[in-house]
């Protein structure tokens, strides 16, 4: 099937969204932006902080777009019955409760699978669905520490350092979305869905990548390296006459180009001749590079080095990121007409496809805004819906 640009690839997929805070909504946002019919299920007592801040916060606005919202008391018999009816025809359920909650509510994977074997059920937890630490409460910074990231982030000798984004939450959500899409593809072959699981801890360890394999394969515990690349020297932050820039003069060919452009004969010393020797003498090398970089401005060095085939770039504050001409060209800042805030911009998808475009069809919904609309779609009469409302089920 050939898609027209902006065609919602996932518009045939219905997602029941039970998520809160960040990792779960991040997963569902990936599906919603590509057109999935996302029904966001909120409990009557749900606090704003449980959902990523107040509804008018930039965080909530960015996370909860392209969804319809209904309020449903899953602890009540009627609420649970409604959810199970919705699950009969749903394609995907995403939740990031504590591992035991879904079982206590009676809406776990095995229960849903018993009457809808096609269901793809995604669970995100702090530390896994089972195991000795599975009942611990999960939080991004805890996972950053336990998963090793904080031990390799920051300057040597200054103690562990968290990164500036909730990277465990975000990557767990991204991996969960990937798992959902894989399970949907698998369902085309087998006719059956499956239970997709990930955790903040697993996601964080996966993101260690080559730093993790330094230990697994070579029994080497990576240290903190600050702004220097752990293994490819010189790659890092260097001071110019008016600020700082990033330079990646890696590999013998690029290192040679860098030396030629800088024009300092001291860089030809044998102590900087090979990758290993540059790594051994990284501090002295860094001092020499900084001394030379201070002779010209950031703008000029970036222009000179890139023209010479040496990767170099600005170190932007967030405002300058979005004023960058290439960022504007890529269009990752997307327009949205928010209920609470009017015309705003949010962060779009980082994926470009030739025959489809992720779009923002809906701003984040008001709490329970679509409860009656959704229940009517599932065959409930106006009288039944009124009764649910009177009993506090919706």
> What is the mean pLDDT?
94
Structural class: alpha/beta
Summed up, the domain count is: 2
Number of strands: 11
Taken from the alpha-carbon principal axes, the silhouette is elongated
Strand order of the largest sheet: 3-2-1-4-5-6
List low-confidence stretches: 1-5
Rg result: 25 Å
Identify the CATH homologous superfamily of the largest domain: Crotonobetainyl-coa:carnitine coa-transferase, domain 1
**CATH class term of the largest domain:** Alpha Beta
Helix content: 40-55%
Strand content range: 5-15%
The SSE string, one letter per element, is EHEHEHEHHEHHHEHHEEHHHHEHHEEHH
Give the biggest sheet: 6 strands, parallel
Structural features:
394 residues, Rossmann fold, formyl-coa transferase, domain 3, 2 domains, 6-stranded parallel beta sheet, 3-stranded antiparallel beta sheet, 18 helices, 41% helix, elongated, disordered N terminus
Write structural notes for this entry.
The chain is α/β, with parallel strands linked by helices and 394 residues long. It folds into 2 domains: 14-208 and 333-390, Crotonobetainyl-coa:carnitine coa-transferase, domain 1 (Rossmann fold, 3-Layer(aba) Sandwich), CATH 3.40.50.10540; 235-320, formyl-coa transferase, domain 3, CATH 3.30.1540.10. 41% of the residues lie in helices and 14% in strands. It has 18 helices and 11 strands. The strands form 3 sheets. Strands 3-2-1-4-5-6 form a 6-stranded parallel β-sheet, sandwiched between helices. It has a 3-stranded antiparallel β-sheet with strand order 7-8-9, with helices on one face. A hairpin with a 3-residue loop joins strand 10 and strand 11 (342-347). Helix 8 (167-190) packs across helix 9 (200-208). The two termini are 39 Å apart. Residues 1-5 have low confidence and may be disordered.
């Amino acid at each position: 099937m050939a898609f027209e640009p902006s065609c919602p690839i996932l518009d045939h997929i219905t997602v029941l969204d039970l998520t809160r805070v960040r990792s779960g909504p991040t997963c569902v946002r990936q599906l919603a932006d590509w057109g999935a019919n996302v029904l966001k299920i909120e409990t009557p007592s749900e606090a704003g902080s449980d959902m990523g801040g107040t509804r008018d916060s930039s965080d909530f606005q960015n996370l909860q777009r392209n969804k319809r919202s209904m309020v449903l008391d899953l602890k009540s018999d009627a609420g649970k019955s409604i959810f199970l009816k919705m699950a009969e025809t749903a394609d995907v359920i995403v939740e990031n409760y504590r591992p035991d909650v879904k079982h206590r509510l009676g809406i776990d994977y095995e229960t849903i699978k018993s009457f809808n074997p096609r269901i793809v059920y995604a669970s995100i937890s702090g530390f896994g669905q089972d195991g000795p630490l599975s009942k611990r409460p999960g939080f991004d910074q805890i996972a950053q520490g336990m998963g090793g990231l904080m031990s390799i982030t920051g300057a040597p000798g200054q103690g562990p350092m968290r990164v500036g984004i909730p990277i465990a939450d975000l990557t767990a959500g991204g991996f969960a979305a990937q798992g959902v899409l894989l399970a949907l593809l698998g369902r085309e072959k087998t006719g059956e869905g499956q239970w997709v699981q990930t955790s903040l801890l697993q996601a964080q360890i996966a993101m260690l990548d080559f730093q993790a394999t330094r230990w697994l394969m070579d029994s080497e515990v990576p240290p903190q390296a600050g702004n220097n690349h752990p293994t490819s020297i010189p790659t890092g932050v260097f001071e110019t006459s008016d600020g700082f820039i990033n330079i990646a003069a890696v590999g013998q060919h690029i290192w040679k180009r860098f030396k030629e452009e800088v024009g300092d004969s001291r860089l030809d010393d044998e102590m900087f001749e090979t990758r290993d020797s540059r790594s051994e003498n990284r501090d002295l090398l860094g001092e020499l590079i900084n001394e030379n970089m201070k002779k010209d401005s950031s703008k000029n060095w970036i222009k000179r080095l890139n023209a010479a085939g040496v990767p170099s770039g600005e170190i932007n504050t967030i405002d300058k990121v979005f004023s960058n001409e290439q960022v504007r060209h890529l269009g990752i800042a997307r327009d949205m007409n928010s209920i609470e805030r009017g015309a705003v911009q949010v962060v779009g998808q980082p994926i470009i496809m030739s025959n489809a475009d992720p779009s923002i069809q809906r701003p984040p919904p008001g709490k329970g805004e679509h409860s009656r609309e959704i229940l009517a779609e599932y065959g409930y009469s106006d009288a039944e819906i009124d009764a649910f409302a009177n009993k506090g089920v919706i």
